[in-house]
């Protein structure tokens, strides 16, 4: 009789434990599946995206299109904000460039399924609104916001093979004095304003000692002009009675190189505060004790005058470009290092 009474006391406790176990959950919050389930009864997970290619800081609307009546949803968004969601149809913002996966896991009364779509979302850098942009694809068209198509002062310009193998995809500067391009309607960036100048260049070794002028604007006086050049294999920036040069000196090697020059007045007011980039990477600025001159005492305070020159300095026919110039781009802000790196990879 005593054993019988003990069994009666144990049975309710065992039943309670069984009920708790049947309702227990996995680490992800989903109830544990009990026994074998017909797979055809499980959720068939599917979803769509409002766009699979967006620019950084744009949003994507995801829509659940799963069948078999799922009611509990867990999304995972690689590279997204938020990174997870339990909404059925969430909206996600992507802040950084890259290619990202999306996972949807869902439950119905019979169990859990998931669908992982690798590399579903591609995020690109937003297009940069260049003030002037000269692709030099066999012509002198400006595809930037100003629309200042370049003009040759010496007749029909020649075009040659660009870095991608396009037969007429780069402007071929003659290297002859007073043969250059101008940009009617665009005189440059004025005063102390932020600016970025970028271009692809290919300079033969025999032109190493020329001041190969890519672009030039302003007045030939102290602190009043802005010239972007390659001289003795180095980037050379002139602001008037001064110059800033890169420590790197390999640019006259008959190979294509991406040159970028960026100035943000928030970084300082002097020529030395200009940032230089070669092939998408930050270059080293030479001090005045080295190859630069007056860069530590001369300000950036450009005065506009004539239309900008491409291929020759505004103040001397001796400082002309001999080689190929491509994709000259100028914008009135200091591009970020990542934006410059991305441009060098295009």
Describe this structure in a few short sentences.
With 346 residues, the protein is mainly beta. It has two helices and 26 strands.
Protein model, in words:
Helices cover 9% and strands 38% of the residues. The chain has 346 residues and is mainly beta. The chain folds into two domains: 39-124, Immunoglobulin-like (Sandwich); 132-345, Jelly Rolls (Sandwich). Strands 10, 12, 13, 15, 20, 21, 22 and 26 form an eight-stranded antiparallel sheet that branches. A seven-stranded antiparallel sheet has the order 11-14-23-16-17-18-19, with no helix packed on it. A five-stranded mixed sheet has the order 2-9-8-4-6, with no helix packed on it. A hairpin with a 4-residue loop joins β18 (234-238) and β19. The radius of gyration is 32 Å and the shape is elongated. The relative contact order is 0.14.
CATH architectural grouping of the largest domain: Sandwich
**Based on helices, strands and strand pairing, what is the structural class?**
mainly beta
Main sheet attributes: strand count, strand direction, barrel closure: 8 strands, antiparallel
Tally of domains: 2
Number of strands: 26
N-to-C span:
88 Å
Order of helices and strands: HEEEEEEEEEEEEEEEEEEEEEEEEEEH
Kindly provide the name of the CATH class of the largest domain: Mainly Beta
Mean model confidence by pLDDT: 92
Helices, by number, come to: 2
- Spans of 5+ residues with little confidence (pLDDT < 50)? 1-25
Name the shape in a single word: elongated
Query: Over all CA atoms, what is the radius of gyration?
Result: 32 Å
Helix content range: under 10%
As for the CATH topology of the largest domain, it is Jelly Rolls
Protein name: Mannosyl-glycoprotein endo-beta-N-acetylglucosaminidase
Domain PKD: 43-111
InterPro entries: ConA-like_dom_sf (IPR013320), Ig-like_fold (IPR013783), LamG-like (IPR006558), PKD/Chitinase_dom (IPR022409), PKD_dom (IPR000601), PKD_dom_sf (IPR035986)
GO molecular function: mannosyl-glycoprotein endo-beta-N-acetylglucosaminidase activity
């Amino acid at each position: 009789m005593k054993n019988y009474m003990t069994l009666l006391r144990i049975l309710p406790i065992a039943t309670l434990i069984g009920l708790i176990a049947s309702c227990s959950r996995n680490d992800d919050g989903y109830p544990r599946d009990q026994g074998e389930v017909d797979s055809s009864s499980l959720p068939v997970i599917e979803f769509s995206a409002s766009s699979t290619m967006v620019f950084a800081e744009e949003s994507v609307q995801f829509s659940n299109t799963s069948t078999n009546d799922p009611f509990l949803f867990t999304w995972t968004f690689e590279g997204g904000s938020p990174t997870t969601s339990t909404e059925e149809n969430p909206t996600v913002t992507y802040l950084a460039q890259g290619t990202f996966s999306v996972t949807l896991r869902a439950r119905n009364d019979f169990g859990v399924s998931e669908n992982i779509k690798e590399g579903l979302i591609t995020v690109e850098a937003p297009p940069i609104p260049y003030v002037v942009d000269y692709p030099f694809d066999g012509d002198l068209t400006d595809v930037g916001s100003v629309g200042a198509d370049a003009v040759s002062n010496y007749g029909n310009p020649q075009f040659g093979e660009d870095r991608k193998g396009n037969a007429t995809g780069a402007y071929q500067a003659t290297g002859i004095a007073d043969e250059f391009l101008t940009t009617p309607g665009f005189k440059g960036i004025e005063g102390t304003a932020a600016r970025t100048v970028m271009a692809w260049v290919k300079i033969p070794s025999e032109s190493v000692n020329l001041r190969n002028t890519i672009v030039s604007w302003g007045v030939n006086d102290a602190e009043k002009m802005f010239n972007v050049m390659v001289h003795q294999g180095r980037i050379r920036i002139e602001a008037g009675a001064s110059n800033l040069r890169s420590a790197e000196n390999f640019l006259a090697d008959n190979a294509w190189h991406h040159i970028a020059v960026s100035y943000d007045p928030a970084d300082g007011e002097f020529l030395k505060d200009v940032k230089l980039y070669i092939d998408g990477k930050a270059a080293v600025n030479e001090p005045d004790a080295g190859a630069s001159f007056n860069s530590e005492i001369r300000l950036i305070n450009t005065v506009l005058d004539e239309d900008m020159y491409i291929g020759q300095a505004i103040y001397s026919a001796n400082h002309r470009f001999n080689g190929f110039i491509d994709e000259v781009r100028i914008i009135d802000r200091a591009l970020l290092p990542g934006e410059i790196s991305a441009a060098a990879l295009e």
